[in-house]
Predict the 3D structure of the following.
Amino acid sequence: MSDTRSRDEVRQDIAETRAELAETASALAAKADVKAQVKNAAAEKKEKVRTAAAEKTEQVKQTAAEKTEQVKRVAAEKTEAVREKAAQAKVAATESVSHVKQAAAERKDALVGSPQHGKHELVNGAEIGRHEEATSAKARGPVPIAVVAAGVLAIVAAAVTLVRKRRS
């Protein structure tokens, strides 16, 4: 070796060599420590699983929100369809009631205005006068309306039941 180097330089060189040797020894010790390597690998896997679970959870939440909106939209469409059918049933029932009223009025006019007014005849197996029959037709006037209203109510109830069954 040459003596051209000073003592301080040699000491510094020795210190650097010691530091490199310490790093190499630490690296070798870390490779030899299987327990620590397993622990580190487990921690890395655990973090990957947590990240994947968080991503999947977010995807499920997003899908659930989309499906919820879709169900709401379909339910609104079905509700509107049921409302339209109910409105159509109401119109049909109103027309039917009007037709029944007109037919009843025509029958009444035919019975009251007939030349045999006041004479007795056989109706439903009983003998009654024309005047009594016309009077009873007036008394029964609300009955066809009640029957039609009950029919409309039954149609609406059936439509509501159908909508509820489809929702569940």
Q: What stands out?
A: The helical segments are 7-32, 34-112, 130-139, 142-167. Residues 122-134 have pLDDT under 50 and may be disordered. The longest strand covers residues 120-123. The chain has two domains: 1-54, 78-168.
